[in-house]
């Protein structure tokens, strides 16, 4: 398939850049292959890879949100401090990279509370954003949104409005939206998609950026910015720029998803940062946050079954 012509010269909209800070062995596809009890004995590569991303962001003068695992903050508190000192936003990716729908509400609460405390201690500032491992807030774990509100988070970026074998709520809104509950409010920041016919197709990050040709991402973000006047929320992981990482044994689909085009991600990232404007997720949401705090009245429910 040939690339559609894409002009990004008129894309004045500022998009959000985000990084899920985890090591190569924390990834959900390796659950059961690298047990959590052996994580501390694994060679850690997350600091060096994150430092490289920070240098790339400095080169392009952009700020990003870093959704950091609590267990990474515990093992490498200096990494968290360094990210803050370079002017970026710190947010939470949970403590132990457990899928939300595999946990009880109490276990999830302990996980996100522990992560928030570790991150705030290391960063020296408050943490208000959350992204679940593998976008695992789905129809069977919507209770997690109430827990996040109660634990002091003000935005969540864990719902992908697509069909996928592991995650997604295809009927969920494609733009950031406010969820108001008895316990307070939360802004939901969905993974970015373009609408093609009856489908929402993911366009901004992770495997979709690394495995598909770059023109797909470029076309998708340009379409969001120019036709829909919407910002994209891009995401990637430090291990995605690390072609030298140790190879772990897993099924062929998992190996394909994790190892494909690792040696191309960094140059694609330079292209992306040259083509579009980026800032943190919090900066994208500040106007919505003000609106949320000024609102009053009865809580609204989500636009799908709660
Ligand atoms: Zn993750």
What would a concise description of this structure say?
By secondary structure, the protein is of the alpha/beta class. It is built from ten helices and eleven strands.
Describe this entry's structure for a reader.
The protein has 306 residues and is of the alpha/beta class. It is 35% helix and 15% strand. It contains ten helices and eleven strands. Strands 1, 2, 3, 10 and 11 form a five-stranded parallel beta sheet that branches. Strands 4-5-7-6 form a four-stranded mixed beta sheet, with helices on both faces. A hairpin with a 2-residue loop joins strand 8 and strand 9. Helix 3 crosses helix 4 and helix 4 packs parallel to helix 5. The longest helix has 19 residues. The protein is globular and about 50 Å long. The N and C termini lie far apart (40 Å). About 2% of the residues have low confidence. Bound molecules: zinc ion (ZN).
Taken in chain order, the helices and strands follow as: EHEHHEHEHEEEEEHHEHHEH
What profile does the largest beta sheet have?
5 strands, parallel
Distance between the termini: 40 Å
Number of strand segments: 11
Estimated radius of gyration: 18 Å
The number of helices is: 10
Q: Indicate the overall shape.
A: globular
- In the predicted model, the low-confidence regions spanning at least 5 consecutive residues are 295-301
Residue share in helices?
25-40%
Structural class estimated from helices and strands? alpha/beta
